[in-house]
């Protein structure tokens, strides 16, 4: 059976451990992608994959990517909520990988809300 | 849902909602027997017997906000379309097993889809608190990932670290490619009619170009 090669993972562990000490600070932002049945069917997985790849590319460690259930607005999926520390959360609707890239670059990295994709400002609740 | 990997993600979300701390995902592509088997096993809170009966009904849900719950019903529909069967076993306090078996070469069987994206979605967002075991077999070749083993090596480094995620994404994607997961069936072993043969040649060529 093919399994993951452990040696390479150990190398990564060592590399990450060295740089990690420098930034033990808390997360600066959280992006929640809604992963209910409706979200998944509308393409939420691609949104999340795009986000994760952006974070991998830019090696960002102070942004958390999370998932949640259906937020009750199935017709506007895929949706994501961006929360910056000390700022009210913003919900984005009808997302595409291109839109989330822009939101990531503008809102998460520069703190500027991309109002043309936003639904409203308010707190995160699901179910 | 466009493909089975999305259905799997959706069913696993149920396990996460049920408070599972360990979720096993098994995919078995058995070409010899022309069967595709998918199993999702969790140690969540389980489902009560009287609820289990109603579970495939799209107008049944444990949610209180809305009165429809489509995840399992949609999966059951996809499975049935490929002359398949779905079974759900559950014990309160122990966990739930969802198992689906369908005809591999059925024309209406949903494609496998991108299993790597499904697994990485789960590992990237949930593996800090939930253990995932993913085993994918194609005939006799299998690929397996166990996040407990990964976490043992990583020690204090979280599995959701971007460097780790990038590494795992690459490894899982190449591991699945090596066993030819979800890539139709090998034409040599399968006795198929000429038209079917051509269809599969065409679809596998399309896949390669991607």
Task: Report a brief summary of the structure.
The complex is a heterodimer of chains A (127) and B (210). With 127 residues, chain A is of the alpha+beta class.
Main traits of this protein?
heterodimer, A: 127 residues, alpha+beta, Glutaredoxin, 5-stranded mixed sheet, 4 helices, B: 210 residues, Heat Shock Protein 90, 7 helices, 6 strands, 39% helix
Compile the SSE list and pairings:
The complex is a heterodimer of chains A (127) and B (210).
Chain A: E1 2-3, H1 6-20, E2 29-34, H2 37-42, H3 44-58, E3 63-68, E4 80-84, E5 90-92, H4 97-110, E6 118-121
Parallel strand pairs in A: 2-3
Antiparallel strand pairs in A: 2-4, 4-5, 5-6
Helix pairs in contact in A: 3-4
Chain B: H1 4-17, E1 22-30, E2 35-42, H2 49-52, H3 71-81, E3 85-91, E4 95-103, H4 115-126, E5 131-138, E6 141-146, H5 147-154, H6 162-178, H7 194-209
Parallel strand pairs in B: 1-5
Antiparallel strand pairs in B: 1-2, 2-4, 3-4, 5-6
Helix pairs in contact in B: 1-3, 1-4, 4-6
Task: Describe the fold and architecture.
Chain A has 127 residues and is an alpha+beta fold. Chain A has one domain: Glutaredoxin (3-Layer(aba) Sandwich), CATH 3.40.30.10. In chain A, 39% of the residues lie in helices and 20% in strands. Chain A is built from 4 helices and 6 strands. In chain A, a hairpin with a 5-residue loop joins strand 4 and strand 5. In chain A, helix 3 crosses helix 4. The radius of gyration of chain A is 16 Å and the shape is globular. Chain A starts with a strand and ends in a 6-residue tail after the last strand. In chain A, 37% of the residues are buried. Chain B has a single domain, classed as Heat Shock Protein 90, CATH 3.30.565.10. The longest helix of chain B is centred in the C-terminal third of the chain and has 17 residues. In chain B, 40% of the residues are buried. About 3% of the residues of chain B have low confidence. In chain B, strand 3 and strand 4 form a beta hairpin. By secondary structure, chain B is of the alpha+beta class. Chain B has 7 helices and 6 strands, in the order αββααββαββααα. In chain B, 39% of the residues lie in helices and 22% in strands. Classes of the chains: A alpha+beta (127), B alpha+beta (210).
């Amino acid at each position: 059976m093919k399994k993951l090669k452990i040696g390479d993972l150990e190398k990564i562990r060592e590399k990450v451990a060295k740089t990690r000490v420098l930034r033990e600070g808390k997360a600066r932002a959280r992006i929640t992608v809604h992963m209910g049945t409706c979200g998944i069917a509308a393409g939420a997985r691609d949104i999340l994959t795009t986000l994760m790849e952006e974070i991998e590319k830019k090696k960002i460690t102070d942004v958390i990517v999370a998932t949640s259930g259906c937020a009750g607005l199935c017709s506007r999926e895929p949706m994501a909520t961006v929360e910056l520390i000390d700022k009210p959360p913003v919900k984005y609707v009808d997302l595409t990988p291109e839109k989330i890239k822009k939101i990531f670059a503008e809102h998460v990295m520069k703190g500027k809300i991309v109002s043309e994709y936003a639904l409203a400002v308010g707190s995160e609740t699901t179910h | 849902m466009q493909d089975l990997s999305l259905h799997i993600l959706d069913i696993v979300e149920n396990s996460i909602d049920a408070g599972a701390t360990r979720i096993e995902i098994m995919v078995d592509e058995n070409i010899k027997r022309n069967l595709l088997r998918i199993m999702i096993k969790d140690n969540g809170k389980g489902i009560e017997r009287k609820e289990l009966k109603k579970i495939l009904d799209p107008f049944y849900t444990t949610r209180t906000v809305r009165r429809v719950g489509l995840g399992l019903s949609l999966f059951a529909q996809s499975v049935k379309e490929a002359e398949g069967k779905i079974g759900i076993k559950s014990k309160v306090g122990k966990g739930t097993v969802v198992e689906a078996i369908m005809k591999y070469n059925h024309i209406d069987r949903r494609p496998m889809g991108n299993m790597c994206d499904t697994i990485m979605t789960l590992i990237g967002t949930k593996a800090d608190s939930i253990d995932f075991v993913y085993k994918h077999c194609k005939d006799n070749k299998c690929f397996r990932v166990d996040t407990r083993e990964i976490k043992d090596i990583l020690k204090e480094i979280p599995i959701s670290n971007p460097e780790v995620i990038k590494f795992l994404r690459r490894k899982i994607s190449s591991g699945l490619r090596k066993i030819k997961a979800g890539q139709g069936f090998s034409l040599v072993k399968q006795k198929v009619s000429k038209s079917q043969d051509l269809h599969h040649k065409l679809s596998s060529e399309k896949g390669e170009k991607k």
